[in-house]
Amino acid sequence: MSTETIEKPLPKLTTEDYVSARLLEALVEAYLAIRFLSEGLVRNAAGKAFQAWRAFLAALLRLELNNLLKVAKTEEERRWLMDKAVPRVPTTRMVALSQMLEEVGYVGLYFTTSAALDLHDYQYNGPDPDMALSKFRNREEAAKAAMELIKELTRRIEEVKTRVKWGSDLEEALSELKRVLG
C-alpha cells in the first residue's frame, strides 16, 4: 500500500474529493496500525488506530454536513461545525460530534469513538495497572482494542463507499487492509 497518497494536501472542504481523501487517510492509518502491531509497537499502533478513526469521522462530518447543520441547535454551533469541527475534528469534541452523527443515523458511533479515545490515552500513557491514566492494564488489551477499532472502521467504510467518490486508490487501500486483517 502506498502511503504517499496521504502526504498530499487535503482537497478543499467544499469538494467531494475531501471525503475520499479522508477515507483514504483512514485506511492508510489503519494499515499502519496493523503494521506497528505486527512489530510489537502497541503504543504507536494505538495512535495510528485513533488517527484512522479521527480521519473517518472527518469524512463522515463532511459527508453529512447538511444534515448536521439541520440538527445543530444554534447559529453559533452551525458556524463552528463548518469552520472548526469538520476540517479539524478536535479531540476534545469527538464525543459530541459522534453523538451528532448518531442523530443523523450513525448508530453506535459514540461507543466506538469512546474506544478510540481510550486508545489515544493509551498512546500517551502506556499500560496502567491501576487504570488511572489509561483504560488498558497491559499491551495485550490495548492491541486487541486497536484491532477491534480497525475492524469496525473497515466495516463502516464499506457501508459508506457507495455514497462517495470511490476510486481505484480507495479500493486498493481497502482491499489491502482487509487482506492484512485476514
Can you offer a commentary on this structure?
This is PaREP1 family protein. It holds the Pfam family PaREP1. It comes from Vulcanisaeta distributa (strain DSM 14429 / JCM 11212 / NBRC 100878 / IC-017). The protein has 182 residues and is an all-alpha fold. The chain has one domain. Helix content is 70%, strand content 0%. It has 8 helices and no strands. It has helices spanning 17-38, 42-63, 65-71, 75-88, 94-103, 109-125, 139-160, 168-181. Helix 1 (17-38) packs antiparallel against helix 2, helix 3 runs antiparallel to helix 4 (75-88) and helix 6 (109-125) runs antiparallel to helix 7. The longest helix has 22 residues, at 17-38. It is globular, with a radius of gyration of 16 Å. The model has no long low-confidence stretch (mean pLDDT 93).
List the helices and strands and how they pair.
Elements: H1 17-38, H2 42-63, H3 65-71, H4 75-88, H5 94-103, H6 109-125, H7 139-160, H8 168-181
Helix pairs in contact: 1-2, 1-7, 1-8, 2-4, 2-5, 2-6, 2-7, 3-4, 5-6, 6-7, 7-8
What key phrases describe this protein's structure?
182 residues, 70% helix, mainly alpha, PaREP1 family protein, PaREP1
Q: Spell out the helices and strands N to C.
A: HHHHHHHH
Shape: globular
Q: Determine the number of helices (DSSP H or I, runs of at least 4 residues).
A: 8
Distance from N terminus to C terminus (CA atoms, Å) equals 16 Å
Percent of residues in β-strands:
under 5%
Mean pLDDT: 93
Profile the largest sheet.
Answer: none
Protein name: PaREP1 family protein
Organism: Vulcanisaeta distributa (strain DSM 14429 / JCM 11212 / NBRC 100878 / IC-017)
